[in-house]
Amino acid sequence: MYKSFFGLKDSPFEVNPNPKYLFLTKQIEEALAGLMYGIETRKGFITLTGEVGTGKTTLVNRLLDWLRHRRTRTAFLFNSRINSLQLFDFILAEFEIPCEIRDKSQQLLKLNKWLLDRYRAGEKAVLIVDEAQNLSHPVLEEIRLLTNLETSSEKLLQIILCGQPELEEKLKLPQLRQLRQRITLRCKTSPLTKEQTADYIAERLRIAGATSAPIFSPKAIETIHMYSLGIPRVVNLLCEHALVNAFTENQHTIDPKIVEDIAQEFQLGEVELTPTPDNHGIEGDVYDSGVFLQNLGEVLRGFGLGPSSSKAIDPRRK
After folding, report:
1. What is the rounded distance in angstroms from the CA atom of residue 95 to the CA atom of residue 71?
2. Which residues, 6 or more positions from 299, have their beta carbon under 8 angstroms from its beta carbon?
3. Least confident range of 13-22, 43-52, 94-103, 303-312
4. Of 61, 95, 162, 199, which is least packed with CB atoms within 10 Å of its CB?
């Protein structure tokens, strides 16, 4: 609708986790490099954690693109509210391992044989579990036991647990200490700084084909950062609606008022300002992340993008 108006070839702020729009901050580069290294060297267990909307799924998409060219089989579990038996059903289905028997021990034998075959063929197998903070303790224990599938020197299955910071807290529980001790690499995503938010918006516009004068004024970008807390998903939502509103108003440059109107409509301005002592490079005028994120789920649902809908996204099937 607005693409020709702004001289764009694509919609730059689609909320789908398209890997071509992955914005490589230093921390994202480090996380991606850590994931690649962990898989290549068969480290076994890796975690990827970050606040909701900070780009974990987009990062996983980029990783999956890389794995497709490296003789690697992947299984992506996006439904983390499963029991132990369902876990094995999902894994076998994702790896396309035929098994008519629903006995867990037989399923495990099938999986082990398949992994050994892949190992002898020089292939790797990677299991990625999204929203892993929702996994029950019994299921986490079953996942831990999967790391016992190994040769005398290497793990047969590489496992990435991807989730929100609650995953890190869950892994600190005494009953999960064996799992915690097996994690060899911990990768993280984080919100964007004010400068990174400006670069993020400019880069997505560039990829989408923008060549003319700046579409967002500097003050509008500052306003976007303030209301989004630098969370890429919220930046996308504000920018997408700003482009639509500016188009309907025949306005070629987006000013702060357009952004403020959208933020008010979705109640982003009602969050209490409480700067945090450790802001990881985010300036002190942004919202306290804990307070902000308590309301973020409701805000995203207002856009039709609440947590329940995001769980249904399989990054490989875009």
Report:
1. 14
2. 234, 266, 267, 268
3. 303-312
4. 199
Per-residue DSSP letter, 166: H
Amino acid sitting at position 292: F
Task: With residue 45 as reference, give the H or E element that holds it.
Answer: strand 45-49
CATH of 26-188, one of 3.40.50.300, 1.10.245.10, 2.60.260.20, 3.40.50.970: 3.40.50.300
Measured CA to CA, the distance from residue 61 to residue 58 in angstroms comes to: 5
Q: Is 73 helix (H, G, I), strand (E, B) or coil?
A: strand
Taking Cα atoms as reference points, which of 187, 149, 182 lies closest to residue 165?
187
Distance CA 73, CA 93 (A): 12
Strands (E), 67-224: 72-77, 124-129, 157-163, 183-188
CB-based contact 39:154 (threshold 8 Å): no
Paired residues of 185 in beta bridges: 46
- The amino acid sitting at 65 is D
- Spell out the domain ranges in the chain: 26-188, 192-315
Q: What is the DSSP letter of 249?
A: T
Question: Which amino acid belongs to residue 300?
Answer: L
Collapse the DSSP code of 303 into the 3-class scheme (helix H, G, I; strand E, B; otherwise coil) and give the result. coil
- Output the CATH code of domain 192-315: 1.10.8.60
Predicted model pTM:
0.79
Distances (CA, A) of 195 to 118, 226, 282: 45, 12, 9
What does the radius of gyration of the chain's CA atoms come to, in whole angstroms?
21
pLDDT tens column, 92-112: 999 999 988 878 889 999 999
Nearest in space to 18 (alpha carbons), one of 69, 71, 68, 57: 57
3-state secondary structure labels for all residues of 121-134 = CCCEEEEEECCHHH
Terminal CA-CA length for the chain: 22
